[in-house]
Design brief:
heterodimer, A: 285 residues, mainly alpha, ABC transporter involved in vitamin B12 uptake, BtuC, B: 279 residues, 13 helices, 81% helix, globular, membrane (chain A), ABC_BtuC-like (chain A), transmembrane helix (chain A), transport (chain A), ABC_TroCD (chain A)
Chain lengths: 285, 279
């Protein structure tokens, strides 16, 4: 692994980008069929609170000066996922309100924490919108470690995740531990969001999760195909976005999302041309 | 307290806050009850794209820099809601994905606009998280007029909105023009978001519309009570938050939202103690 140390910032950014370009559409596909894509927005905003809390701890107390805000962000995302579940139970008639509640409370807390520490705007912007220039060596290690764990969990629980995504009741009858698999799924989501924030930033993670998947859905007929196409689109967005941002000198995270948006629009147009507009009747199997 | 009377800009912020402290939760009641709380989040994020676009135009065409970017933000919010409705029809089985697609895509486009306009500076931060010094005299009067319009519309169309929120089919059957009322509702929501964001910022607007309502829901016995509780909670949190932020030197938008969250947590705890598990 000596060679990682010789990487330039661009190579480090490309590597981290390709890892998330692969993982986020996979997660997106599961979220999509479970009709839960909006949760990624809620969790990404909670991650911001974790990051700001980490930075405050780092700067205010001597004990935590070693802390990497990525870890506190990850913790906050996991914590947030469980709060959403609780809130859903409390507002049964208006379940969807649980995401806005968490999202706005999280941003409020972040805003207050941000005003407590004298960190430059540029640094906040790099967490909000991502910055490929700031991918350091330790971030590459974080990406490798967390990426490997995520991939492993996905492979190990693929069948269970598939089962609960399509028919939770049937899955529980056939003996899938639904509660536990749901927990694994939540954990996966938090891991992927924490991974993505260096490159695309908190506010753009959601786009990388949903856009490639939504584009794939318009073309693919089976879940497996949707998964593969989603990964293809995800990687294309990341690579295209990084390249374009390098030559056009614009924000990388934004350019990655714009590439995803272009792919999505192309998929939409092709669906119209092929007369697949009545997608209403089609469900992924 | 005296600072708020001495400095003009603080006085205008205070008046503006007092207005949105009532307006946002009242609008929020309809937003939440019509199950469109996510839509409010999406619209507020799209407003950012409009603001970024306005900044970009101001850079290319200097006379346009004098416009308040918030108005472009409102236009984008309305446009975004049309796109969401379209996408909902395309993704029939997975309707809720439409909001996520537009919400996240919009921020991406916004970020590209901002970086083209070289706008990663202090101004952007106050658009995102709000700032008390952002309200000028002209802004204040525009805000006053627009909020009066929204309140008037709410009173005029109260019956239609109420009916559509609780029994859409019956409402349509009895001749309420659903499409037109819905369009009006979206425009009103976009207006309220645009008005409120000048104080609390884009990322926190939806908090003002959902948190007081979610807290009020734990107690309210009727729709009318829901309005009153939400408006009172909203107003108290906005004013206390504003003063607290001023003296503690924290971000005003964040402080207001944290107070709102605190009230929500308390009301959940109290109503649970009273034996009310879910609403």
């Amino acid at each position: 692994m000596e060679w990682i140390q010789d990487w330039s910032f661009l190579e480090r950014g490309l590597f981290a980008g390709m890892v998330i370009g692969f993982l986020s559409p996979v997660l997106g596909a599961f979220l999509f069929v479970r009709r839960m894509t909006i949760i990624s927005e809620g969790l990404s905003h909670v991650t911001l609170t974790g990051i700001t809390a980490g930075l405050v701890l780092m700067q205010v107390t001597a004990v935590f000066s070693w802390l990497n805000p990525l870890y506190t962000g990850l913790l906050a995302a996991i914590f947030g996922a469980f709060i959403i579940e609780r809130l859903r139970g409390m507002y049964r008639a208006f379940e969807e309100v649980s995401v806005p509640i968490l999202l706005s409370a999280a941003v409020g807390a972040s805003a207050v924490l941000m005003s407590l520490v004298p960190t430059s705007y540029a640094e906040w912007y790099s967490y909000l919108f991502g910055s490929i220039l700031t991918v350091r060596q330790e971030d590459v290690w974080f990406t490798i470690g967390v990426g490997a764990v995520t991939l492993l969990l996905m492979l190990l629980f693929y069948k269970e995740l598939l089962a609960i995504s399509f028919d939770q009741e049937f899955a529980s009858v056939t003996g899938v531990p639904v509660q536990r698999v749901n927990m694994v799924f939540t954990l996966l989501l938090a891991l992927v969001i924490a991974l993505s924030m260096k490159i695309v930033g908190i506010l753009l993670v959601g786009a990388l999760i949903i856009l490639p998947t939504a584009a794939a859905y318009l073309i693919a007929k089976s879940f497996r195909r949707m998964l593969l196409l989603g990964i293809l689109f995800g990687e294309a967005s990341v690579l295209g976005g990084i390249t374009a941002s390098y030559y056009l000198d614009v924000a990388t995270g934004g350019m990655i999302v714009v590439c995803g948006l272009l792919l999505f629009t192309a998929a939409l147009v092709s669906a119209f041309v092929r007369g697949r507009t009545g997608l209403g009747e089609e469900r992924i199997t | 307290m005296s600072a708020f009377w001495t400095y003009e800009f603080l006085r205008y912020s205070l008046f503006t806050s007092m207005m949105i402290g009532v307006l946002a939760p009242v609008m929020g009641v309809f937003v939440v009850v019509r199950r469109m709380s996510l839509m409010a989040d999406a619209l507020s994020h799209i407003t950012l794209t409009g603001i970024a676009f306005s900044l970009l135009i101001g850079r290319w065409h200097p006379p346009a820099a004098a416009w308040n970017p918030v108005y472009m933000g409102m236009v984008f919010a309305v446009g975004g809601s049309v796109l969401i409705d379209r996408l909902r029809r395309i993704f029939m089985h997975y309707k809720e994905a439409a909001i996520t697609i537009i919400l996240s895509g919009a921020i991406g486009v916004g970020v590209v606009f901002i970086s083209l306009a070289d706008g990663f500076n202090t101004d952007l931060f106050s658009y995102l998280f709000g700032s008390v010094s952002a309200v000028s005299r002209t802004d204040f009067f525009i805000i006053l007029i627009l909020s009066s319009v929204v309140l008037l519309l709410l009173v005029l169309f109260y019956k239609e909105l109420f009916f559509l929120s609780f029994d859409e089919e019956q409402a349509v059957a009895s001749g309420i023009p659903r499409q037109r009322i819905h369009a009006l509702f979206i425009v009103m929501t976009a207006l309220v978001i645009g008005l409120s964001m000048q104080i609390v910022g884009i990322l926190l607007v939806s908090a003002l519309m959902t948190l007081p309502v979610a807290a009020a829901m734990r107690f309210a016995g009727s729709f009318k009570q829901l309005f009153i509780y939400a408006a009172v909670i909203g107003e108290v949190c906005v004013l206390t938050g504003l003063f607290a932020a001023f003296y503690l030197d924290t971000a005003p938008g964040g402080t207001i939202v944290l107070l709102n969250t605190l009230v929500l947590v308390l009301s959940i705890a109290v109503s649970k103690a009273a034996g009310k598990e879910a609403v």
